[in-house]
Protein 1
Amino acid sequence: MKLYDGGRAPNPRRVTVFLAEKGIEVEKVPVDMGQMEHKSAEVTGLNPLQTLPVLVLDDGTVITESVAICRYFEELHPEPVLMGTDARDKAIVEMWNRRMELNFLGPVAAAFRHTHPAMKEWEVPQLAEWGEVNRPKALAFLKLLDLELAGREFIAGDRYTIADITGMIAFDFMKPARIERPDQLANVMRWYQSVAARPSAAK
Amino acid sequence: MKLYDGGRAPNPRRVTVFLAEKGIEVEKVPVDMGQMEHKSAEVTGLNPLQTLPVLVLDDGTVITESVAICRYFEELHPEPVLMGTDARDKAIVEMWNRRMELNFLGPVAAAFRHTHPAMKEWEVPQLAEWGEVNRPKALAFLKLLDLELAGREFIAGDRYTIADITGMIAFDFMKPARIERPDQLANVMRWYQSVAARPSAAK
């Protein structure tokens, strides 16, 4: 098994942190996205969408999409549980992971890709106005999240899950996206400091 | 259990088709999105993000996000399997469902929301340029999908799955989004005609 990895870019990092939480080691093939290596013939042959990460199983099966890769490992190595226990809990974790993607990581990534000068070659056409629209969307969601986190420790309940990984990585990605950290949201900040202090976050 | 339903809008319809494929009946609370009822105090109280559908369990647990609702039913009623069998198959279905969302339903919805006059109140600010950028993105993905579908019957393999539901609904949504149907993509058209002929598609 081999994991074509894009380093600290948000989606590759989601899988890296997930694997660190599970204590799973996978052989990695580093791909330098700064050098556009994710558009190489080798990566394109595995994933015509040219996104990372890409997991190649020993039988040659190719799995792309961070959460699909996480699900593969969750099914094979359930402990520690990161994607829910029973039907109700799995649904709650999926809901929160998607809420973090659609309302937080997505807007932060859009702000980054559509306003950062380094992204001109990546996001064609780069529409600064679309990037700008997304900054307040991310912050509006964090205000709602702050109310939620008044009543519990982690995003999807009393246990750390994949939704915390998505959220932490989106939060870190606010910096290159030039979105100010919402220091006034005490519950969000307490949650972020807690998840960012885990050993997996150093990955 | 009650399902707050938004009718034929894409996300509510994903759950409706999924339940029809499973043969599951759930009590529905119709919400008229044309009348902005998804912004009512009742719906907002259940889901501050004001999106539909919303599933309320008998114990009061609220599940939002179409795929999270689908996962709840998949876990409780595995047959017919719509989200994968073993670790590898679940990962493949998740990969394809996300590819259909990120590269097809997402761009089609962006084109609709940012260019359709009826969406002016919904998508603030409406950025026509962003809508226009998304039309060719959807079509470029369908070209890749056409190559994939040369070798198999359904999106994620030889079995109908949730990825076919997402794809069919995105395909139908091209019409209001004013994206021309790609009649030249023979494999995509064969796949679409097959999934659109299932009884669940009439929902």
Protein 2
Amino acid sequence: MATAIQTQFKRDILDGETNEQVTSLLQQNLINLVDLALLMKQAHWNVFGPNFRSIHLQLDEIIATVRGGSDEVAERIAALGVAADGRSCTVAASSDLADYPREFVDVKQTITLVADATKTTIDSLRSAIETLGDLDPISEDMLIAIAGPMEKHLWMLQAQEA
Amino acid sequence: MATAIQTQFKRDILDGETNEQVTSLLQQNLINLVDLALLMKQAHWNVFGPNFRSIHLQLDEIIATVRGGSDEVAERIAALGVAADGRSCTVAASSDLADYPREFVDVKQTITLVADATKTTIDSLRSAIETLGDLDPISEDMLIAIAGPMEKHLWMLQAQEA
Amino acid sequence: MATAIQTQFKRDILDGETNEQVTSLLQQNLINLVDLALLMKQAHWNVFGPNFRSIHLQLDEIIATVRGGSDEVAERIAALGVAADGRSCTVAASSDLADYPREFVDVKQTITLVADATKTTIDSLRSAIETLGDLDPISEDMLIAIAGPMEKHLWMLQAQEA
Amino acid sequence: MATAIQTQFKRDILDGETNEQVTSLLQQNLINLVDLALLMKQAHWNVFGPNFRSIHLQLDEIIATVRGGSDEVAERIAALGVAADGRSCTVAASSDLADYPREFVDVKQTITLVADATKTTIDSLRSAIETLGDLDPISEDMLIAIAGPMEKHLWMLQAQEA
Amino acid sequence: MATAIQTQFKRDILDGETNEQVTSLLQQNLINLVDLALLMKQAHWNVFGPNFRSIHLQLDEIIATVRGGSDEVAERIAALGVAADGRSCTVAASSDLADYPREFVDVKQTITLVADATKTTIDSLRSAIETLGDLDPISEDMLIAIAGPMEKHLWMLQAQEA
Amino acid sequence: MATAIQTQFKRDILDGETNEQVTSLLQQNLINLVDLALLMKQAHWNVFGPNFRSIHLQLDEIIATVRGGSDEVAERIAALGVAADGRSCTVAASSDLADYPREFVDVKQTITLVADATKTTIDSLRSAIETLGDLDPISEDMLIAIAGPMEKHLWMLQAQEA
Amino acid sequence: MATAIQTQFKRDILDGETNEQVTSLLQQNLINLVDLALLMKQAHWNVFGPNFRSIHLQLDEIIATVRGGSDEVAERIAALGVAADGRSCTVAASSDLADYPREFVDVKQTITLVADATKTTIDSLRSAIETLGDLDPISEDMLIAIAGPMEKHLWMLQAQEA
Amino acid sequence: MATAIQTQFKRDILDGETNEQVTSLLQQNLINLVDLALLMKQAHWNVFGPNFRSIHLQLDEIIATVRGGSDEVAERIAALGVAADGRSCTVAASSDLADYPREFVDVKQTITLVADATKTTIDSLRSAIETLGDLDPISEDMLIAIAGPMEKHLWMLQAQEA
Amino acid sequence: MATAIQTQFKRDILDGETNEQVTSLLQQNLINLVDLALLMKQAHWNVFGPNFRSIHLQLDEIIATVRGGSDEVAERIAALGVAADGRSCTVAASSDLADYPREFVDVKQTITLVADATKTTIDSLRSAIETLGDLDPISEDMLIAIAGPMEKHLWMLQAQEA
Amino acid sequence: MATAIQTQFKRDILDGETNEQVTSLLQQNLINLVDLALLMKQAHWNVFGPNFRSIHLQLDEIIATVRGGSDEVAERIAALGVAADGRSCTVAASSDLADYPREFVDVKQTITLVADATKTTIDSLRSAIETLGDLDPISEDMLIAIAGPMEKHLWMLQAQEA
Amino acid sequence: MATAIQTQFKRDILDGETNEQVTSLLQQNLINLVDLALLMKQAHWNVFGPNFRSIHLQLDEIIATVRGGSDEVAERIAALGVAADGRSCTVAASSDLADYPREFVDVKQTITLVADATKTTIDSLRSAIETLGDLDPISEDMLIAIAGPMEKHLWMLQAQEA
Amino acid sequence: MATAIQTQFKRDILDGETNEQVTSLLQQNLINLVDLALLMKQAHWNVFGPNFRSIHLQLDEIIATVRGGSDEVAERIAALGVAADGRSCTVAASSDLADYPREFVDVKQTITLVADATKTTIDSLRSAIETLGDLDPISEDMLIAIAGPMEKHLWMLQAQEA
């Protein structure tokens, strides 16, 4: 299996140190986004109570956004010459998201937990955006384009808590 | 958070013991299917070498099938009154699938690894189908409908190894 | 009007007695499915209260499933050489479903009544599936394919009662 | 079940007496339209003889028109504050349509029976349109919009009898 | 700028006085419809509380109907040779609708305010329909076609208040 | 051409003897389905007489079903590790279907001949379904899913003979 | 009406003072965009002269862009915890756009007036973009994405004046 | 050819004299609409000069409306039991429209001629609508629905003359 | 009206005499195609008897082909610098087609008359194709592409007469 | 079965001898095209080796072209009054194509065999085109339109052999 | 790079000399078509003056036709075994088209220049068509199919000059 | 031709010197993008060898991206008041891209050449992005949006070289 596997590719878009910083920031956000999609599917399946169906459908719309985002980020990492890592073991070990209950969760509690997880993901994106400005404007632009709709989804979740 | 969370719902479609057997079989297959989708995304992002693009596209088609299957299984579990569990920690801990490399993997090796993971998932579905025949024909029928396309995908992967 | 009307056609897919048992089981389920669609339209028009619109839309989705099911069953009866009967007088006289109120019904009460009617219809399908296994696997397969989505709809209704 | 059910809603689009006249005219037409759809499905399933397929398909096109019409009428009744009634028992008891045979019916006879039922439904619509002109132009307009396509369908049925 | 601007065009579809009456009635309804769309966008952006998302989406569906209606009316006025006026200053000065709060508004209050504004718009359409019957049946027909769906939307809003 | 051709592949989904029985049953049904599609195209091109166009179009709808079925069966055979055989020489030599005339055939005769060929194909499917139940439920399920629509098509052909 | 209305929500994405500056800049641009859409509808309805139809259609394309922009801006304001204000009274009182004639306007004059209004809106966006760079890159990015297509529309309007 | 042809069918939707008046009014409008479509195709092919393409496309949009209208009218005549007449000889002999030149016609002249022909057709529709109100509200409603879009097309033609 | 109208344009794709021959051949075929479409609409509206609906629909499919053909021919004439003539007076005076009855016509007779008219149109196209081969291959190719589908339609009409 | 079958129809588009020559040329090409589609399906199911999926998909695209071609040719034969013959026995006996292996075939060998069969089919089409030019330009044109895309498919197959 | 590049492929559809003549004619037309598309994009970007938008859009429609044509021609050359050449240096050096200005060009001048370039391209196609008739009917047919729509576009451009 | 041509338009979005810098940077990138599309079409037509079809299709996807980019850039230049230049002579003279062979090129070599040309184009975009940040954020944002997908395409090409 010697030559079949390679940790890194030689690409010269960014210089070495910058590349490491950029891909490392992207890698953590990839993990959060993959985990957020799993967490939201968990919520989608196990929510119950009045108004159940509305949140059930809304979650699938957010999941589509989140999955689109994780694909963008992973392919950006690969485009920069580094292997992306979105395996279940990595996600379980390194995600920034709080644990989600294993049980059925009612609508109100579901909204709170999902909004918190979304907020954590956005904070991580925001923090990476700040750093990336000086390192790689194309990666920065990509994260901004992911964070925008996420903040809109957050508002639409939070508006239901009020 | 007392009343907001419930481990199980009272539903009378199947009797208690049967229900436990059925949902427990479905739960393990849910884990395998969720993990298979993650593993295939990992492969999709990190494959390299001649013919790269063809396998890159083929993987996304299989992923759509696998995700459709995990949704079907999870909602069946919930329909039987038990909370489904597809969280990253559970998947990482309980999946039947072998580990996938963290690095870039070439086309040939990717096909072998992905075919193996698909075979593992099918074996688990086949074994559940045999047991479910006497317990719940609707769950059995649902797993048959998932296994059929999976075996077709397996053939299309294996045909490339020959 | 002598030759214009015929009670039965000579077809040799199944032998005579089996055919009678199969079509008689299908006929009762046809009646229940036709009545369920009418009952749900009644609910769709007359529901009121907070969250009204969500259940109003959900009911039309279930109705589409139910109507598809009754068409499948009726055409299967005809394909086996017996005339199907879905006329209003037959449905009113022989349906297994409980009566539905003539007035406006609020959201909570609507969900309970509609879930009960769905449960009655599923019980009748389940009971026919058990018998059909040995008589005609194609009719059995058709009823399983109808019962699956109906049980999922039932869960989505019941999850709102919790 | 006290507050969960209400016979009528307070709305002031039309004055009380007018409202009663309008909704009572609409209610009888609702019953006829619901029954016509059931009768045509019966015909759709049980027609036989040369040219069978053409009338089989044509009936489903007319049914789509009729179902659209009954939905419009029922929601208009509700919009005027009165509960609509399209339940199987009401339809079986109060429909203006003649009985339809329980057996298989040949193409020629099917066309005659279905055309007669359509004519009965149109007569009832026409008679309501005359009265509604002075009571509620929006309800009148809606029935005209239903009657027009019905008269065209009648022509297309009768043209086959000639 | 002398010839670039014209208050009126010579068209002979209706005689002078009739034309003035018809277009003046249409003009006031145009103002109400334009204002209603703005008011509903305001509500769409600032609604909050449980069930928020359902009303958020429902409002956009009504807005599509209302905008379609204002376009129809304005182009009818122009087709009759008179310039339509839907400018913000005219709308603010002459609309029949009550003021809407500048703040965030909860779901219940939003439904009441939006239903009231819809009712005001319908009353204005109904009153114009009565007068237009003798003046211009095509304009009358157009307003009936706008009022019908508006009354149905009103019912779907009010059903949530009950 | 030594290594370029292989009669069989090593796959371990089913044990050897079972695999041979299953694929041999599937192979005969593949031949019948391929021949049925050719026979129906022949009928589609050469039918004549009143009502010609209706049967001309109906035949193309059935052909689409039959071709879908033969593709399913052939790919199932390959998925089980055996080469499928749908070549013209094999089909001409081993088909169960009766010969079809070389001439133009009128509508009535066409319907009889096509219905007979369909019946032959269904008998072969039914007989395989019975045997496959104990050998491979996934192959059995696939043939049931093909036979169901075929029996419905048969009814729609026979209903025109009555 | 006490608790039903709230001027502001507690959100912690931006600190207080920054939030006020950002939302105040966005609010003025919201007003301009809403007014621009109304002004262009006015132009769309009342333009006349040779080539009328081409500009009539072009205006509806620009309106779609402008409405999309105002929706983006308003929902961003809400996402930042402040109520957006797009009511007719606010738009009429605070818009930066010059008055538009109440009469029919010929094609040449229409293009000039509409281009001027577009230019005013762009200047306001450009000025906000400059300030927002240091305050909130996501809001800045959103306004850049709105200004780009607006400048292209401006060119397509101006190219006709030459 | 004796029985193959029939001048009229026995139908009882309207009484005899009313039927004759209604269908005679519809017949003249049918002729005008068929001729208008031919005249506009003539214009569509032979227009020339600056701005040629815009009017060339606009004419095809109006033709689609006109053809839809003539189909509606002819099928209404048939639905009332009388044969419609849209043959070239009848159209050439009885149309109310003025002659159109045989040569190429420039844009300005084309617009004038086409607008005049549209005006003639509308006058004929308007005159029939007035009479039909008391005879058959469904035919009246149909002509109103045709005249509305025609008047809008007329405005869009005339706006280019101004 | 002096300069607004022009009999011919100077174009140099073909030399003068050739151009006259080509456009004169095309002009007669244009007349036949326009008349054929009118004749088929007449048949579409007034056909009656068993199987009515099938021929009613078939005629509209042929009409779409014929109208596409007349558009192609007329725009080819104009592209060659000569005004096309498809006005009702010209069509009525110069068409090669036999007269069609004014009354209702039964299905059998309708098929015969429509097939005859189609044959006449094809003969005229065939004759022009022979001459055009040496004059203008692009016009020849266009008529071949029109004649092919027309001959197929003729077969489908004649197959019903047999 | 006497009158139900007819070898030939009297049609007068071409004279007798020409007709025989034309339809006999078309008949051989029909056989080749039907056989080519069967051969390519065989290849589609049984190909294996690296790059398998790409050729698997490409074959289905070519099959769609080939089937479209055989339908065109068969319906042209019928349109000329002769029964087309595409039955499996005729195809097996008279096809010009070389035998295809019964086993699994690797990608390289598959491409060679499929390209050879395509070349044989093209040669037969080319040879018929040469003869048809003087006999029937419409049939010639049809075969040219089939041969063009076939030669392009051949190139795309051969380019992979290089 | 020895074997990686090849000037010609051995294919036996046409004999050697014919092949050279055919591909050489096609190559010059390829160059003209590629250059025409570039020239029209240049015009599309830099046209100005009243009516700008109409010609701006029309040019993109013609470009789509021209690009489709150049793709057809280039792939035909390759299908005949010769490498096509559409590189910028070849196009700049060998195109038959006159130079186009580097500046903004007004509408009238743009139409003249674009029509001239289209005429040059058509002349080249016409001249090749004449020669190809005896060499390769499939290539001839392809160029006719390209020239036809080009001549129609030319008419639509020239009609605006008149 | 005096006034028909203009080198520059007066527009005041950016000041003079900035405008010159911005448009000059955009102009060079326009040339590269136009040349890249031509080069890739050349590759698309003349590639050969195993795996040919996959790269053939992939190139057309990249071309769609590149053409979209060149249109964006050219219209931005025009929107800033300067004429864009994408003529074949300019592209041949000023492109930064290396020459491409005139012959057939095998898959491996094609990928290398196309990847190099893409890299050159990206370097030029990157260099312009750096300078534009301070001059015009809207132009900068547009180039970033073009460079992103280009870098992803580059990765997908390079991954095949590994």
Protein 3
Amino acid sequence: MKPTGPLPPEFASQSGELAIAGRPTHDWVAAAGGTPLFVYDLAVVAARAGRFRANFEKIDLHYAIKANPLPALLAGIAPLVDGLDVASAGELDRALAVKPAAAISFAGPGKRDDELAAAIRAGVTLNVESEGEAARALTLGGRLGRSPRLAVRVNPDIELRGSGMKMGGRPSPFGVDADRGAALIRSIVAAGADWRGLHIYAGSQALDAAAVIETQAATLTLAERLADEAGQVPPLVNLGGGFGVPYFAGDTPLDIERVGAALAEAVERSALTAAGTRYAIELGRWLVAEAGVYLTRIVDRKVSRGETFLITDGGLNHQLAASGNFGTVVRRNYPLALAHRMGAPAAETVSVVGPLCTPLDRLGDQVALPAAEVGDLIAVFLAGAYGASASPTAFLGHPPAHEIVAPLS
Amino acid sequence: MKPTGPLPPEFASQSGELAIAGRPTHDWVAAAGGTPLFVYDLAVVAARAGRFRANFEKIDLHYAIKANPLPALLAGIAPLVDGLDVASAGELDRALAVKPAAAISFAGPGKRDDELAAAIRAGVTLNVESEGEAARALTLGGRLGRSPRLAVRVNPDIELRGSGMKMGGRPSPFGVDADRGAALIRSIVAAGADWRGLHIYAGSQALDAAAVIETQAATLTLAERLADEAGQVPPLVNLGGGFGVPYFAGDTPLDIERVGAALAEAVERSALTAAGTRYAIELGRWLVAEAGVYLTRIVDRKVSRGETFLITDGGLNHQLAASGNFGTVVRRNYPLALAHRMGAPAAETVSVVGPLCTPLDRLGDQVALPAAEVGDLIAVFLAGAYGASASPTAFLGHPPAHEIVAPLS
């Protein structure tokens, strides 16, 4: 038997049939037209946004669309946040449908000219990632007769300790190295562009509050240093995100209260604050991961050499990350449950696999579950971020998963 | 500097601008309408099929569609092979468009009732993966008034040594354990179904001829034993595939000549052959991987902490496997080249990364290339299998890659 990760608080103490947003799973399956199915509970997102607001009073909240760009979900999230961060022209279009351009910023290391032009035309902020990209944006702005709104993304000297994905403190395609940041700011301002500030992103999926606090403090210090060197006060400092969620056994939630209190103090102390700088934190995973449940139906049950397999109608083609094949070295189990027997004692150890002809397609490896039969539903939790949109949907020719949003009541 | 894998023979000795099927890359880009772009050279597939025919005279050649299901490619491959193996109802539809039902078989551990019914209606062979699935197929056949064509997929006692992905010799969602195979065959025959034979798949991506030979011999022995125990001669034994291609530095091609000679002898010796059994090998990757080239344009070039990055307009959203994030533990470089300077000496060490906001999006890690500029094309080879269709296309909202087939001239 191998452990599974912890259920999100909204689902952890349920018994009997799993309810999402107060409705039983079979209802959601009927509403969506079948399985496999992602259900996203907007109330869970709102609860996370509320916790952020309570602990980060003076900090703007941005949503990083890449975590989950489903239009129906995005429409529900937009009113809960101050800004949207996009990473492609495709995401930009989705953001512009639900938020004014002034609240949108566009980051990404390989922006094509047509993407830069679309952003400049719309009036969104471009987080430029290199001197070359800044020059292209300025040239395009000149051609379009529009002064581009440019923030400078900086590759910080620091990395976020304990983060699932380090993005600072090393050679990186993201941003300009900190020691060239001030020169780039000066050249942007000199070119007459509308300089919007700084974007500094040091890592993601961190659960250690002390590490996040340390990184945010160092990010503020770096922002101060760059402002000083450039002789310019940044209108906004986007402190990045990096707030993690507990996926695996032994993971504990990030202590947001502690992070918020420390950041409030650091911001209070900063000379930039007095000079009028605002701050933003961009969150993707932390806002939406726990809001999503992936529901897949058991198609077959079989025993092979003493191991019991539950074979489901959905797998890594919809939920690549849960199969352990996306950015993880060692496969570990996401939290999952037999959907109509929440809280029931485990009766057997089974492996839950998808329908694909590859041994990679495993949603649960030797997990303890109540007795399950063909036709039962398996719920895989933590499916709200980097799920449907970050999986190889076309692989092996199965239909895409249904996706449905439970609105705020 | 880190090594890259070997270029396929069709491209290895080129100089100047890369030509695919005799046409320069810039031509293909123009024909497809831009980058990123997959070009598949059908002549390379035909050459591989020809090598198979020359070395496996008495063995049927099947194409496993999952390796690359692009309809235009499939239409070109269908006349080159004896059968098509599919893994979903979606793939079944594509196969039926280019091949008669009698030449199609359908494997996969989680076939839904609607998939089984579609296969039975069409008259294709179902490789049943469990006793439960066989029972469902028989029930559905009864309901449809059609006798289903059923082969039995067997989880062999043996595993393919040195294969990239082991699929035998262990608990498995694929097939019934060998010791239950005969009972399932007998029950299928007793139920009046049309028993088509055996499907035995022990692993994939093997480069060691001795290991493949050993596995094929053991597979034949297992087929004989099952036929004996069941008292039934299998019309067809699908020996699986598992022929690998060299992706990485140090990989050497599988010695097909040796494998073919050994299999011919083993088949010659087998009592099943005398009794009329035919044999098939199903190949996906080996037929198409080397036929594909992924072309992506450099959008930015930057230096960070001493490391030079070429940032391209395509990445893991189209070519997940090349980024090292699909079924590999240690990331290694696929073969890649600067497309207009084939054969030119390396001038610098660079990392080639895609446009996605994730450090996972790396196509080449510290590779030696001639000097490259913004606007140049990077060619990533071995892109014909498990590329476009096995990648998270929607991730970060970029457009899908173009795909174009170079027909046989």
